[in-house]
Amino acid sequence: MNARYDQGFHWIGNRWVPGAGEHTLPMIDPSDGQPFAAIARGDARDVDAAVAAAREAFEGEWGRASALERGRVLMRVAASIQEHADELAAIESRDCGKPLGQARSDALACARYFEFYGGLADKVGGYTIPFQAGYTVFAEREPHGVTGHIVPWNYPMQIFGRTVAAALAAGNACVVKPGEDACLSLLRVAELAAGCGLPAGALNLVTGLGSEAGSALTAHPGIDHYSFTGSPETGTRVAQAAAERHVPVTLELGGKSPQIVFADADLDAALPSLVNAIVQNAGQTCSAGSRLLVERSIYEPLLARLGKAFDAVRVGPGAANLACGPLIRRSQLERVARFVEMAESDGLRVVGRGSIAPDAPAGGFYLAPVLFADVPADHPIAQQEIFGPVLAAMSFDGEDEAVRLANATRYGLVAGVWTRDGARQMRMARRLRAGQVFINNYGAAGGVELPFGGVKSSGHGREKGIEGLLSFTTIKTVAVRHG
Ligand code: TXE
Prior knowledge:
40% helix; alpha/beta; Aldehyde Dehydrogenase, Chain A, domain 2; Aldehyde Dehydrogenase, Chain A, domain 1; single chain; 16 helices; binds ligand TXE; 483 residues; 6-stranded mixed sheet
């Protein structure tokens, strides 16, 4: 069969499989609003087939593979993704609208996850436990079995890499429901993985809508663990469905992350990072630095510099590789535009605004990045995850107020602190309620090795780093009485 990743097929048991329902969904290019490819519109029957294939792999060749063998396969997958980075970047850039350079970084990050977890596969073990005389007791790490992965559209390759590579390294077989707005790169990566010797059924992708394929996956009795990245509302539904069967869930639900700048900070170092943290991927980043808290004595001078930097941001099609691309879909553009209009009609001060390149196609989902100043802490643009290039700035006096403002949202994913004062760095790190705190940097260049996840409505459980692999294992205690 001459089927390919962009022609409306699922990937099940290392084969392109048409959807049981014979329906497809058009893929829309965010840069011009035009359909350019199709994915299968999966339903419960497709999910059934994928779970059955995964179960067979888990009980068969993949489940029996040694940790060393699993690691070697994943390392080959990493090399293959790296070799195909340009091709994958082109797919991802068109699918998501992200600038080509960002898409290439995402492909390399995906490769790095496979490399990291491939290397880790045979290095994470259990332990023995001192117990009563005549016993030997050990705790062994086991895979959950068949893991369900619900991946969004904003960073398909990165989020797929960080959950799927970790799950496979731990010995699970995976069923992935990627985001319906952007998922073509993942179908291609799955095909590449098969070419690297990943056995049939170890990795399956069922495409389609969240309300159809997604909810069929969360209701399926054959799934032993879920990882979900997306909105808190959908995360709640996923967790509720999993709770019906007492299946563990890892949830990464986004944020409203603060960047906190003290008067003693190295502003030359901070400035590009403050802009990039909200403009990257058009602000559609779970860890976007979407709130800016600035110590009062440098508030106006810093805003003046930032305003100029925002003014200089150009927005255009992914292929043009400007600083900022379009938003993912028309409804997301409308949602972000509503926040901007609300802030403007509430009289919030605009300090800087980028511009859309004059030759950007008319049908694309473009929005110029904008910096608002003097935003009240309880304003919706300071509280809600906008998921667009909108930065809300406010001033503070002293550490206590900075901490209070920083912690005053429902989220707690990431926080950034800019200060030269070492003791303050440590105090702030302790007091901020977030899963990651970055001091004098933001995001640590992706940080494949660094445990990542949230507190409060940002979710629970950890991905990335060694913790990410542990999330895909469970402990079995074996007590041997030998006298
Ligand atoms: O998210 P959803 P949407 C946030 C961001 C954004 C908002 C809405 O604020 O503006 O969410 O985006 C699948 N059962 N984030 O609507 O619905 C869906 O198909 C099972 C933050 O795209 O959470 C997709 O694969 N699955 C975020 C995934 O869930 C379901 C990334 C995410 O979709 C489902 C994305 C269901 N009933 C959005 N309904 C982050 N943390 O980075 C949907 N899905």
